[in-house]
Amino acid sequence: MASITINADRVLIVDSDNPNQVGYTAEKMGSNQSISSALKALVHFSIPAEYAHRRVIAYRLGLYFESYSLPGTSYFGFANFDWLTDAFDATVTFNTMPDTAGLSDTVRLGYSFAGYYYSDFVNVGSSSAQNFLDYIGNGISAWGDRNFWTSTSQNQPVLQMSLSDEDYLPTVSGSPNGGYLPKQADNSFTWATVLPEYTLKGWEITGQAFEWKNVDDENWTHIDVADSSYTIPANTITGSSIVWRAVVTVTDGTRTETVYSPEYTISTAEPLGTAIPSSPINSIVDGSRPIRLMWNYSNPSGRLQNGADIQWGPPNSTYQDLTSVSGNTRIYTVPADFFPAGTIYWRVRSYNQDGVAGSWSNGVTFTNIAASPAPVLTSNSAPYTTFNWQSEGQEAWQLTVNGVDYGVRYGYDRSFTLPEPLADGQYTASMVIQNQYGLWSQPGTLIFDVQNAPAGTVTITGTFGVDAELRWAVSAGDPQPEGFQVFRDGAQIGYTKGTQFTDRMSMGEHSWHVVAMLPNGNYTRSNTVTGTVSIEEPVIGALNGSGEWIKLTLSDRSATVQEFSSERTVTYRHFAGAEYPVLEMAPFRDKTGRYDVSFADSAQAAAFESLFGQVVILKSRRGNVIVGPLATLNKRETDFYTAFTFTIQQIHWEEISDDS
Description:
Elements: E1 2-7, E2 10-15, E3 26-27, E4 32-35, E5 39-44, E6 54-66, E7 77-81, H1 86-91, E8 105-109, E9 115-118, E10 122-123, H2 127-136, E11 140-142, E12 146-149, E13 158-167, E14 171-175, E15 187-194, E16 204-214, E17 221-225, E18 229-232, E19 241-251, E20 256-260, E21 264-267, E22 274-279, E23 284-286, E24 291-298, E25 308-313, E26 320-325, E27 331-334, E28 342-350, E29 364-369, E30 376-379, E31 386-390, E32 396-401, E33 404-410, E34 415-417, E35 425-434, E36 444-450, E37 458-464, E38 468-474, E39 483-488, E40 491-496, E41 500-503, E42 508-517, E43 523-525, E44 529-533, E45 539-542, E46 550-551, E47 562-573, E48 582-599, H3 602-609, E49 615-619, E50 625-637, E51 642-649, E52 657-658
Parallel strand pairs: 23-29, 40-52
Antiparallel strand pairs: 1-13, 2-3, 2-5, 4-12, 5-11, 6-9, 6-10, 6-12, 6-13, 7-8, 14-15, 15-18, 16-17, 16-19, 19-20, 19-21, 22-24, 24-27, 25-26, 25-28, 28-29, 30-31, 31-34, 32-33, 32-35, 35-36, 37-38, 38-41, 39-40, 39-42, 42-43, 42-44, 45-46, 45-49, 47-48, 48-51, 49-50, 50-51
């Protein structure tokens, strides 16, 4: 901190009542002047230029008074600093006066008899202090009813000040001073210049400019402006961040300075945005229709999305790319039947306006109700063709080969061997699968060729009565058969690993052959044997083949009677405009046999009655064969015979038997 003392170098006495009458104006230096109420003393201090822009920390004024009344009595004198009129100012050769009318300030002066008396030190920090400092270089007026010394010797007025060690220059601050600016938009910059207070000489702004550069550039772009702002047009900035500053030129009339604001570095790289899935989430959707995936986007910059990526995946699987969209599109429609059935995960990430992708969102799920994809079929070329397939979500499957349907089969098997051999040639297989939602897939198809490779020979013979008793012989071959299929009239009726088979359900003339099944899927076909199964009287026996046939020879009626009744389910429906009902014929049939039989032999009666509750076969002389449970039985006993009346309802029964 610097301390200086400056003596007045000039005192001008003026008549304040007649400030425009310059004839009353006189300079008084080197003598004392009695200051009346009408007179004022304008005291001038020459401030060294080096202190013109130092900050004044404290000051005091010293004046020499000579008392002419009440010697030795202490009292106060005053020094007032007032405005001078324009007319008077025009005659004054001091520095320019302050430019605001009506300013005044009072500094208290200590007073005592005949000597220097100083005001108290005033610490600068108020507007009134600044007013005083504005007067220092231009003049100070003082008046009082006493002698005021204006001597150039030891009695001249004196000014003492405490000053800063360095000059105070204007300061410049700007906005924005950080954060983010979008390159694609107009960006405005403003700044404010604060002129220093409590200095002896002031600054005036004479010029302003805006300077900026990309952060990695060396040279500044300089733009002169008329006021304290500038706008960079959209798409001018190319770097990831810029540096900018304001440049202000000031002068005090003789000295010129250039003042810079701080250099502000501001990112022009847009913040990363956040994509959040909004639909579908934790819901069930119909995958047979297009599915709309939707999401929201937010960015601290407030700007819109500039594209997005979408991924999806089934449970316990890695995500796979689905699609990418451009611009602010936040909906993507997935085509129908795209997703597999079941739980589907999906996630999204968005790009900001700089084309930079944000993080992937958390995965969300929905349940897709849709058919599974078509299965992928493979097969061998053997007649007993084995199919293998790959499928997703399988709960059931159905196979057809050249139009032959092998029925709906339930479960998770993915391998199936045809129960019958195929002839040599080319075939087309088709398979559909059903998933947990009961929906069937599109068919998976396979074209394949069959070429049989038999081994050895098989010769069949038969004896025929109530049953057809079949036997066959196998010649040596490689490989050896692992089983035999038995066919009646071209339809399979049994399977055995042995070399004989009893056909209990046949009646009338038929033909039989067997097929030796080889372990490699090929086969060897036997010759064909023809025979007639016939009876002289009705017989009944257990379907499972245990026990003998029981003849139904007698009846307590005059003649043995077998009655057969058949029904088919039909529905008659009336429709508007039709005079008669429309017939709807259901595929369901019912067939019932009613019988009367008598046994004189109690052992035969007991053997028959033991069939009650079993599934039986009944053959009539006229060729009727019925299979069903013996569930209704009426019994009548006399001294000579036991009579029964019973009914059997035909049931659906797979004729193929397997004695393996």
